[in-house]
Design brief:
- The protein is of the alpha/beta class and 121 residues long.
- It has one domain: 2-Layer Sandwich (Transcription Regulator spoIIAA), CATH 3.30.750.24.
- The protein contains 4 helices and 5 strands.
- The radius of gyration is 13 Å and the shape is globular.
- The N and C termini lie far apart (36 Å).
Length: 121
């Protein structure tokens, strides 16, 4: 994580066109564009199943929420599946803002999220 940005966003590729987008730190006005660029990178690589590992995200603001919506749009345009594994802070904010879940697939653990991808037809 860079001290300049306060956020880290890396892509860990998995077999069979899957990947984990690992997010940590604070996602805000300064860092949300980096997150969105990682979503675009996933789509450009043709990765079809994505787990967003946000367990280490400590803060999100409205810009981050907009970035998640944009990231979801980018990934879904490619016909991909996304599973979100949120931190308590991310879960709390998303539940307040979206009465219906923003991501249809949401998990409390990475093991469960990865299992969702592997059993998908």
């Amino acid at each position: 994580m860079s001290a300049e940005t306060g956020m880290s966003a890396r892509i860990d590729e998995l077999p069979d066109g899957a990947a984990i987008l690992v997010l940590s730190g604070e996602i805000d006005l300064a860092t949300a564009p980096t997150m969105v660029s990682r979503f675009q990178e996933l789509a450009d690589r043709g990765l079809t199943e994505v787990v967003i590992d946000a367990r280490e995200v400590t803060f999100i603001d409205s810009t981050a929420i907009h970035g998640l919506i944009e990231g979801k749009r980018i990934i879904y345009e490619k016909g991909s599946m996304i599973v979100l594994v949120p931190s308590q802070q991310v879960r709390r904010v998303l539940e307040l803002v979206f009465p219906e879940p923003l991501f249809a697939a949401r998990s409390d653990s990475m093991d469960e999220a990865l299992a969702m991808l592997s059993i998908r037809e």
